Structures are given as C-alpha cells and as structure tokens.
C-alpha cells in the first residue's frame, strides 16, 4: 500500500517524475543489456568459404538474421533454434536444414549466391503462416558481399523484438505510473466501532483480479482485493475481526506473527477452531502483545487458498515497546510478495502495474517486506542501501545495511532507505525469472523514484 508524503504531488510533479523515470530507465537498460547482447549468437565469420557468414536465429514464430557486414565468398549460415518448438530453415529453391530441436544449431551451406533477394521460411506445418517467413538480400560489390534482412511481416530480428518488448512494457508503466489495472489491494480497512471496540469486517469472495494490463485471473479474496485490506491496530488494544465466508470452501484466518495469549484466536482448523463453512460467519478477538509488521491469511487448505489471494498485512503500532532511533522514517510502504497462480507479484500486481515507490532526496522511507508466497525472494534495490531494522516485527539489536535482502515465505523485514541519488532506480526480485525476460520487465519489479 502506497502512502504519499504529506505534501502529495501535483500533476506537474508527476509529469516531471515520469521524465525522470524515462531517463532512469534508459540508464537501467544500459546496465541490463547483457542478456540482449548474448542473445545474438555471432557465430563465426570469416573470409574463407567454409565458415558461416551470417547467423540465423529461429524462434516461435520468427526468423532473425544478424546484420553484421560479411566478407565476400560463399554464403553459409549458422542456424540456431532458440524457440521452445522444433523448427527448420528452408531457402526457397536452394535447400533446407534438418528439423532442429530447441537449442540446436547447424550450418546451412548455400554455395555462391548471385546478388538478389531470397525467400526463406520454416516448412513445418503452420509455422510459415504463423510468421516464420521472409526474405534476405545478398549484395555483391567488388570483392565483398553483405547479407541483410528485408522487412517482412513476422520476420524482425530477434534482438529487436526483445528490445521492442522491453520498451513497450516500460512505456506502459510510464503511462501511469503504474500502468492502469482494475482493483487496488492493501488499502487500509476502516473499522466500525461497537461499545468502544474496533471491528474489522472481512468477507471472503471470488473475484476476477487484473494482475497487469489484460492479465485477469480468478482470485480468492478478502473484500475483493489482493492483498486483502490492511488491518492496522495498536499494541495492547483489543479488537475484533469478523469474517463472512462467501467462498465455496471452508476457511479460517491465522494472524501470522501476532502474539496473543488466547490460542482460540490462532485460526488453525481442528487445532484451535472449527472450519468456517461456506455461508458462515466467525469472529476473532485479539489483543496483540507484540508490535510490528505482521500478516493475516487463511490457515485452511492454505496451500491453495493463500496463493489464490487470501492474505493481507496486519500491522501493530508500538505503544509499549520502545522504538529505536534508527527506525525513524518519513513515509512508509508495504511490499507483500506473492507467487503462484496469480504470477509473481508485489501487492497483487505484476510489472508494469506495480506501484512505484516515490521519494525525495533525504527522505527516509520505511519498507515493510512480507513474503506471502511459497518461495524465497531476494529483493534488490538499485542505487541505494537498505538499513534492515526489524525482523518479523522485532527490532534488531543493531541494524545492518544491504542492497539485496532474502525474504523467505512467512518472513517480514522492515528496512529504512534514505534516498540519496535522484532519478529512477529499479527495485526487483533478484531471482531474475521473477522479474525480467525477453518479453521485458515483469512480475516482481517496480521502480524507486527519487524526485529532485
Ligand atoms: Cu522472486
């Protein structure tokens, strides 16, 4: 849940920050180009007739040729299948490669070619129609020749396709930021008051949840959002959480990390309570002994119900526990990490729909990391250090600095970041398959924006 700083920001400030993001993202691209570069297999080029003079990449469903100038001589092409399906390369009237399984390469020798345009395609049924077709050109000039692609539908260079995908998704993010999607999770839940006691009302229900633009999944939710609304209470105060179950399965709520002396409030079915059956309601009464960043989630068929969205933040503000000076901050964000059927997400959204963190130089920002997923996520912030101040709601005896922090399932870490360097900085899970691929940034990625 994003909290704006006290002054909020104007439309002008947002536009300025978008420009700052754009510059920052260009810088980000520079640091992350390694993958793109390695995707271009340069093969071997040589003036001798027996070596390949061009490198062709087959993918689902396109044919790409590197554009390096090549020396004169016979045309031989190194052909690599980088797609997940088998493919071949057929040059009309000249020959074809064998069918290449994913990951395999071969060299296709075409002999001496006249200057001109040649048609190529994959001859496996349906692949030509799906886009694996085009032409390439051989230019013969005194003592040299070049092979170049001629634009054809579905036949752009694989490298350009990756670049284009990266650019498109960042532009989508900047159109907000973040990119627009329906629904926002983690919004603070306003309690009703009965006889002076705060009552937090939750209804479990199935909704269609838009994780990122156009990606809509069935989610199991508290009050229709992923994460569920943020519940925030004071250390030592007695509150009630009422739940009405509109799911097709029984459920329960466990208040993860919240220390209470009454085990009947612990929410584990058949250990401390009966299941809350479909259509039933239930009431929990809690008096948190400890403070800090905690969570609430289902503890009934939890391996299915939690990844589908039955999770949220339960934050207990300290009243009696002393707060160390190193925990001071100006603003705060909660970052709930999720994986599973809704994909890799931060607060129920995947990039480009993940909310940015927006700060200014000198601002101290508290981040509450909470892992409600099934696997570990090493969260990495570019350009700044994170001061780890608390673990599972407990202040550390001595804080320590990191730029990457492993957050395991069930764990909470509080960190304070003092923003120093203006601009936009990537903030993402460093298991890279959770954050970036040849379709661009996705999943557990957002941007830390320091507005000068
Ligand atoms: Cu991860």
Kindly describe this structure.
The model is unreliable at about 1-50 and about 140-150 (pLDDT under 50). This protein has helices spanning about 10-30, 35-40, 160-175, 300-305; strands spanning about 55-60, 60-65, 70, 75-80, 90, 95, 105-110, 115-120, 135-140, 145-150, 190-195, 195-210, 215-220, 230-235, 240-245, 255, 280-285, 290-295, 310-315, 330-340, 345, 355-360, 365-370, 375-380, 385-390, 395-400, 405, 410-420, 425-430, 435, 440, 445-450. It folds into 3 domains: about 10-35 and about 165-180 and about 325-450, Immunoglobulin-like; about 45-155, Sandwich (Immunoglobulin-like); about 190-315, Sandwich (Immunoglobulin-like). It has a 6-stranded antiparallel sheet with strand order 3-10-9-8-5-6, with no helix packed on it. It has a 6-stranded mixed sheet with strand order 21-20-23-28-25-26, with no helix packed on it. Strands 11, 12, 13, 15 and 17 form a 5-stranded mixed sheet that branches. The longest helix has 21 residues, at about 10-30. The protein is mainly β and about 450 residues long. The protein is built from 4 helices and 32 strands.
List the helices and strands and how they pair.
Blueprint: H1 11-31, H2 34-39, E1 54-59, E2 62-65, E3 70-71, E4 76-81, E5 90-91, E6 95-96, E7 105-109, E8 116-121, E9 133-141, E10 144-150, H3 158-174, E11 192-194, E12 197-212, E13 215-222, E14 231-234, E15 239-245, E16 254-256, E17 281-286, E18 292-297, H4 302-305, E19 311-317, E20 331-338, E21 345-346, E22 357-359, E23 364-371, E24 377-381, E25 386-391, E26 394-402, E27 404-407, E28 412-418, E29 423-429, E30 436-437, E31 440-441, E32 445-450
Parallel strand pairs: 1-4, 12-15, 14-19, 20-23, 22-32
Antiparallel strand pairs: 1-2, 3-10, 4-7, 5-6, 5-8, 8-9, 9-10, 11-12, 12-13, 15-17, 16-18, 18-19, 20-21, 23-28, 24-27, 24-29, 25-26, 25-28, 29-32, 30-31
Bound molecules: copper (II) ion (CU).
């Amino acid at each position: 849940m994003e909290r704006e700083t006290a002054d909020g920001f104007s439309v002008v400030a947002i536009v300025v920050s978008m420009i700052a993001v754009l510059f920052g993202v260009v810088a980000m691209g520079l640091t992350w180009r390694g993958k793109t570069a390695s995707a271009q297999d340069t093969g071997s080029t040589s003036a001798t007739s027996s070596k390949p003079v061009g490198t062709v990449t087959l993918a689902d469903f396109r044919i790409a040729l590197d554009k390096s100038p090549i020396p004169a001589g016979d045309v031989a092409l190194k052909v690599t299948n980088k797609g997940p399906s088998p493919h071949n390369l057929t040059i009309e009237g000249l020959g074809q490669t064998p069918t290449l399984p994913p990951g395999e390469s071969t060299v296709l020798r075409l002999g001496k070619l006249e200057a001109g345009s040649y048609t190529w395609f994959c001859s496996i049924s349906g692949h030509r129609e799906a886009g694996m077709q085009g032409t390439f050109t051989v230019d013969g000039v005194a003592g040299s020749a070049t092979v170049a692609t001629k634009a054809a539908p579905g036949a752009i260079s694989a490298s350009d396709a990756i670049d284009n995908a990266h650019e498109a998704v960042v532009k989508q993010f900047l159109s907000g930021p973040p990119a627009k999607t329906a629904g926002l999770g983690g919004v603070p839940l306003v309690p009703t008051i009965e006889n002076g006691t705060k009552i937090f009302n939750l209804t479990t229900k199935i909704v269609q949840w838009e994780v990122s633009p156009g990606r809509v999944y069935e989610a199991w939710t508290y009050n229709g959002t992923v994460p569920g609304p943020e519940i925030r209470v004071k250390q030592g105060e007695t509150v009630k959480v009422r739940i009405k179950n509109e799911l097709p399965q029984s459920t329960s709520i466990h208040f993860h990390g919240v220390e209470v002396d009454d085990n009947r409030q612990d929410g584990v079915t058949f250990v401390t309570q009966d299941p809350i059956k479909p259509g039933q309601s239930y009431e929990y009464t809690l008096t948190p002994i400890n403070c800090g960043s905690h969570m609430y989630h289902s503890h009934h068929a939890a391996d299915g119900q939690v990844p589908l969205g039955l999770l949220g933040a339960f934050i207990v503000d300290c009243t009696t526990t002393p707060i160390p000076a190193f925990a001071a901050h100006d603003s705060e964000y909660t970052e709930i990490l999720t994986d599973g059927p809704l994909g890799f997400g931060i607060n129920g959204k995947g990039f480009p729909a993940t909310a940015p963190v927006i700060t200014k130089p000198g601002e101290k920002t508290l981040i509450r990391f909470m892992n409600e997923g099934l696997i570990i996520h090493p969260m990495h912030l570019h350009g700044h250090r994170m001061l780890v101040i608390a673990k599972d709601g407990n202040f550390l005896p001595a804080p320590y600095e990191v730029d990457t922090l492993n957050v395991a399932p069930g764990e909470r870490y509080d960190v304070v970041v003092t923003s120093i360097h203006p601009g936009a900085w990537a903030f993402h899970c460093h298991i890279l398959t959770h954050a970036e691929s040849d379709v661009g940034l996705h999943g557990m990625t957002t941007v830390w924006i320091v507005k000068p």
